[in-house]
Amino acid sequence: MTAKKSNSEKTSLLVKLFSIEGAGTALVFIILILLFMFTAPRAFTGYRIYMSFMASVPPALIIALGLTLVASAGEMDLSFPATVAFGSYIFSMLFQQYEFTWIALFAAVMVGTLMGFINGWIITKLGIPSMIASLAMMFLWGGLVTIISNGISIAIPTIQATFFHTIMVGRIGGYFPAQMIWALAISAFIWLLLNRHPFGENILFIGDSEKVAKVVGIPVARERIKLFTLMGALSALAGVFLTVETNVYFSSQGQGYLLTVIAAVFIGGTSIFGGSGKVVGTVFAALIVAIIEAGLVASGIQGFWTRFFIGVVFILSVVMNNAIEDPDKVPLIKSIRLRMKR
Amino acid sequence: MPSTPIVRLENVSKFYGKVESLKNVSIEIGNNEIVGLIGDNGAGKSTLIKVLTGVEQPTSGTLYIHGKKIDAANYSVKEAHKLKIETVYQDSSLGEKQPLWRNFFVGRPITNRFGFIDVKEEKRIADQIMRTTIGFRGVGIDYDTPVSSLSGGERQGVAIGRAMYFDSDLIVLDEPTVALALKEVRKVLDFIRSIKTGGRSCIYIEHNIQHVYEVCDRLLVLDRGEIVLDKPTSSMTYDELINFLMSMHKIEETN
Questions:
Q1: Given CB atoms, is A276 within the 8 Å cutoff of chain B?
Q2: What is the rounded radius of gyration, in angstroms, for the C-alpha atoms of chain B?
Q3: Contact A271 B55 (CB under 8 A)
Q4: Any idea what DSSP says for residue B40?
Q5: Dmax over Cα atoms in chain B, in whole Å?
Q6: B75 falls within a domain
């Protein structure tokens, strides 16, 4: 115990620096940018590539924010690709048929909310672990949206002429994508929700230990349903942003997000065991995942390598985050430390 | 004592499937007393506590709190908290990764008018509880410390401190000294005594008969779901108590 304490005093400055939320992830982000500035100077020293990140990252970031809360509660949601597609479909369909914009947005988010609520209900009331239940729901919702949309895609190019388009994904000053402002505002809201609201506190305690959560009087089932409901709403909202930016709906639209969003959440430092969530980390990690893809291609490396490198960063980040939380959680570091003490 | 008891159970039974964990239990917990609850593993101690504190609903029977009949269907931990009944479990009262200040107020946060947690106020009160009520001084622990770096005795202290801050009338302690070093056990027993000085009551569940005999005013013995002894501690010597518990086992064996 005393040895542990003196040791921690020695490293206290470093620990303090890294205990700032998201500091580690931000550092990785900066290192990657510097690296790509070196390997792909033409792309990474100009502003254009960053603007294109700001345009493409927000949908993934919005989903990742929701999933950060879900993971903090020790849960998982694999159904969001289908919810993204559903939100996208509802919006595109209502815009194509009736030229609704705000109403279409509202309807899409409502449908996502309802889907999330049903997911939460199935997980808590039928007692299926969320990993499995949400996998099943991904098939179910994904199948349903394909049936309803007849498997065809919808193109809505005329959305570009609307005021709604300008507000949602317009380019501020001709360059800066508005969706990034929205995504950052949602990030701030999610941060407050997790760290400063009783709901967030309840989520953290549920993720820490369900038994403890029950004992201290948290309505565990109700909070879980709320959590998945919020996740559904955010996923559908992400779907709308995606459609408004790309002007198209297709039923497999959300599929590409599944792995990268999950990776972003855990690269960002949210505990894989639940009980701790890092919203700031998620914001940087969502950028990291996007930047790896663009950076590798711009560096002249085949696109096939993207996933390989995301995998590398994923493993390193999770290990690093675990080590920051408690070095003894990583058996390798633990054995090295023990050997050094001898 | 003419005053109404804090809690009264009347013919309470609890089934888990076909297993009857509590059989027609009727007990009372009065004001200002420490009641020791003794019984073997599986005797129904935890079930009794769960029913009492709203974690589980009884299969049949009635529960009175402060003389008021409780609607079993709506009785929950939250409701128990409102009626000032608090439980301290041996290992599941605190969130390991969460800082102490959150642990004091989880489930009952202090919020501002926008519904957000008033972190500053919670930390201030947490600091106060830690310094005055439970006397954590100069041990390198503050309100930002996560529970995971506390010793077993310190954890019990935090949980008991929390119960006392929320002004509970009845604090239930579920084997608080299990797996503690001797020095730590002393601390916890002192915590238990301090509960009574505040005019509150306490149900103390413990395997170590000596500890129970030392701090309790009244003894309850549970055996296979039934109350087999309910006497003031002063009415029997420690040896008599041991003999009684031993004889219980003998009957079991001859059966």
A1: yes
A2: 19
A3: no
A4: -
A5: 66
A6: yes
Nearest CA of chain A to the CA of B241: how many Å?
A: 32
* DSSP annotation of B131: I
Per-residue pLDDT tens for A96-105?
999 999 999 9
Q: CA nearest A270: which of A288, A254, A282?
A: A282
What confidence score (pLDDT) does residue B158 get? 86
Place of tokens 């989880």: B106
Residue B176 falls within a domain, yes or no? yes
Its domain, for residue B207, covers 32-46+53-93+152-237
Q: Which residues of chain A have pLDDT under 50?
A: 1-9
B84 assigned to some structural domain: yes
Interface contact B93-A192, CB threshold 8 A: no
Per-chain mean pLDDT for chain A: 89
B66 confidence band (pLDDT: 50, 70, 90): confident
What is the per-residue pLDDT for B250?
67
In a domain, B182, yes or no: yes
A contacts of B76 (beta carbons < 8 Å) = 217, 219
How many domains is chain B partitioned into structurally?
1
Is A3 in CB contact (< 8 Å) with chain B?
no
CB distance A216–B98 less than 8 Å?
Answer: no
Are B55 and A204 a contacting pair at CB < 8 A? no
Contacts of B80 in chain A (CB under 8 A): 217
Task: Give A164-233 as a DSSP string.
Answer: HHHHHH-EETTTEEHHHHHHHHHHHHHHHHHHHSHHHHHHHHHHH-HHHHHHTT--HHHHHHHHHHHHHH
Q: How far is B55 from chain A (nearest CA, A)?
A: 7
Q: Residue B192: give its domain's CATH number.
A: 3.40.50.300
Nearest residue on chain B to A211, alpha-carbon basis: B92
Best of A192, A215, A220, A322 to substitute, by most chain B Cβ atoms within 10 angstroms, is: A215
| Structure confidence by residue, pLDDT tens digits, B190-223 | 878 888 777 788 898 888 888 888 889 899 998 8
Burial A170-179 (b: 16+ CB within 10 A, else e): beeeeebbbb
**Dist CA B44 CA B9 (whole Å):** 14
Extended beta strands in B144-217, E state: 170-174, 201-205
Q: Is A275 within 8 Å of B95 when comparing Cβ atoms?
A: yes
Minimal Cβ distance to B92: which of A204, A209, A219: A209
Contact check, Cβ <8 Å, B95/A212: yes
